[in-house]
Design the sequence.
């Protein structure tokens, strides 16, 4: 009789511990353990320093299979929109052939790359997007950008009626989170992955009616 | 006069890829891979790994035949598909490569820190890769069956899940950026969904693998290392908890999926 | 001494199919290292196969053959229990011979 009582009590105690774990206390412990794990598991290498593990709001709020609360998403988008640097002299466009080269290149920002200077970086656009019809080696993580300008009725990039599309595209390239809080797309301008000249070239690739993308 | 003739044999010297108009690029690549299956150079690493397991080595001049990979000392068959798991002797959850470092240091007298710091493909690290290749081959076609019995194993699953979704670095990439959705590919490389069971021979079930494109044998530690490099993260230490936790997350998700390791990859 | 080859030889009827996987870098001599210096050519130049001691195949290879080359050929008249030996010689004078029994 005594033995059975002891077993039952032990079981109850265990159940109580488990019940306690289900509350917020457990997830805070997990957060702390996770932070400790990340700190101890990584080290600096080349240009990739451990401070890269620090998250800003956009990263932290989107680090879950569940999307952030609508008000958090709105805040991320608003903060991102505020970071947009519009092009110097209002010059949105460059060279689409240079843009195609950028779209093909995935070089830059990894620990084996020499410098964080964006001028040697690529945009790695084909990793995720279909862009021109000639390139069959394209990814499907992002939507197809084939006929990007054509589909949006852009016949003359300098015309006033093209301005909304031009500005949207620039802002999307500069900071994709301005439009979609948890976008998978990197923030090319805001995170200094590409410079103004390079983003102008990508603008031409996407919007210039003479670009192969719009043929 | 004896005929002199040149044979153009080899794993990667195909004259033309059969990418016909009707065949999708995925089908063409699958056909090319089928043709290579018979001569998977991973077998060379399996042979090497088996020899290393049985050979007396290290300062203590002992073989690895008493190494416990989780199913008892010297039991190799079936061990791969139960890793990573908790080990009472170290009090840690360990994957096969971390466990090999344990065995090579405790049984054979190698310096564990020096082993872990050796670059992939060089010296004793190349031997660890060969051993891992052989060990994985001993579980060929067996289903993944990681234990979640120990609290630390469950903790590592939860930590691995957090790591999987953790966005960081200048490009905001997490593992989920590529592996968080079904039916996606990067360029022409299909991406298995790793937040769930991707199926037989995919994801964790496909590594270690011989990569034809660079002629290298890649273990899971190297596969994770290179993912994190391209996520633009800082450097994950060899056998670190984050790599083990991610492997637990993927391995538990892949429960029942058949291992095809060591496999052949582009 | 180079790493061992994997040889499998299976008899079917009056023929045996032999499959060989060789471990070799097969460096073409065209590649350059990260400092820009050419990596010296290092490749198998000669392959011979013997069936019970009798040469049945001789091949001269060049740098076009890929790393860790795979070779497959058929030997007429080979049956289970027979010995197949494969030898290779490379441009550095390194060589390797391995043997297998036909199953």
Sequence:
């Amino acid at each position: 009789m005594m033995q059975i009582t002891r077993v039952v009590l032990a079981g109850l105690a265990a159940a109580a511990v488990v019940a306690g774990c289900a509350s917020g206390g457990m997830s805070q412990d997990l957060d702390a353990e996770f932070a400790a794990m990340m700190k101890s598991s990584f080290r600096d290498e080349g240009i990739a320093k451990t401070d890269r593990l620090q998250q800003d709001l956009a990263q932290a709020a989107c680090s879950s299979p569940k999307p952030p609360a609508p008000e958090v998403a709105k805040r991320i988008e608003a903060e991102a929109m505020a970071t947009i640097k519009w092009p110097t002299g209002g010059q949105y466009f460059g060279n689409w052939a240079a843009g195609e080269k950028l779209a093909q290149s995935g070089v830059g920002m990894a620990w084996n790359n020499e410098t964080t200077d964006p001028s040697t970086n690529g945009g790695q656009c084909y990793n995720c997007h279909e862009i021109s019809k000639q390139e069959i080696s394209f990814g499907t993580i992002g939507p197809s950008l084939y006929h990007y300008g054509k589909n949006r009725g852009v016949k003359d990039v300098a015309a006033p009626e093209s301005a909304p599309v031009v500005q949207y595209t620039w802002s999307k390239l500069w900071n994709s989170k301005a439009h979609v809080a948890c976008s998978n797309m990197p923030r090319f301008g805001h995170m200094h992955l590409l410079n103004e000249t390079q983003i102008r070239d990508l603008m031409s690739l996407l919007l210039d009616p003479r670009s192969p993308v719009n043929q | 006069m004896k005929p002199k003739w040149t044979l153009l044999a080899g794993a990667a010297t195909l004259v033309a890829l059969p990418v016909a108009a009707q065949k999708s690029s995925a089908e063409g690549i699958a056909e090319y891979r089928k043709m290579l299956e018979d001569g998977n150079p991973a077998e060379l690493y399996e042979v090497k790994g088996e020899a290393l397991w049985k050979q007396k080595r290290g300062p203590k001049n002992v073989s690895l035949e008493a190494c416990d990979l989780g199913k008892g000392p010297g039991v190799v068959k079936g061990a791969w598909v139960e890793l990573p798991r908790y080990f009472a002797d170290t009090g840690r959850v360990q994957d096969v490569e971390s466990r090999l470092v344990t065995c090579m240091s405790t049984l054979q007298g190698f310096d564990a820190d020096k082993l872990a710091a050796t670059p992939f493909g060089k010296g004793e690290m190349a031997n660890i890769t060969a051993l891992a290749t052989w060990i994985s081959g001993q579980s060929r076609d067996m289903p993944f069956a990681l234990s979640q019995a120990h609290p630390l194993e469950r903790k590592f699953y939860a930590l691995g899940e957090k790591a999987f979704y953790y966005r960081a670095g200048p490009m905001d990439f997490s593992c989920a950026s590529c592996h968080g959705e079904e039916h996606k590919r990067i360029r022409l490389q299909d991406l298995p969904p790793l937040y769930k069971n991707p199926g037989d021979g995919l994801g964790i079930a496909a590594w270690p693998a011989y990569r034809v494109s660079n002629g290298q044998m890649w273990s899971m530690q190297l596969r994770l290392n290179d993912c994190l490099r391209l996520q633009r993260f800082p450097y994950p230490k060899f056998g670190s908890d984050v790599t083990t936790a991610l492997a637990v997350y993927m391995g538990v998700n892949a429960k029942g999926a058949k291992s095809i390791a060591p496999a052949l990859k582009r | 001494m180079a790493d061992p080859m994997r040889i499998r030889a299976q008899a079917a009827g009056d023929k045996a199919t032999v499959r060989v996987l060789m471990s070799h870098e097969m460096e073409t001599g065209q590649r350059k290292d990260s400092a820009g210096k050419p990596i010296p050519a290092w490749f198998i130049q000669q392959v011979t196969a013997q069936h019970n001691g009798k040469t049945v195949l001789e091949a001269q290879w060049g740098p076009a053959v890929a790393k860790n080359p795979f070779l497959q050929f058929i030997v007429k008249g080979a049956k289970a229990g027979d010995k197949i030996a494969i030898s290779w010689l490379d441009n550095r004078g390194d060589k390797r011979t391995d043997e297998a029994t036909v199953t």
Summary: Residues 3 and 166 of chain B are 63 Å apart (CA to CA). The longest strand of chain B covers residues 85-87. Residues 1-21 of chain B have pLDDT under 50 and may be disordered.
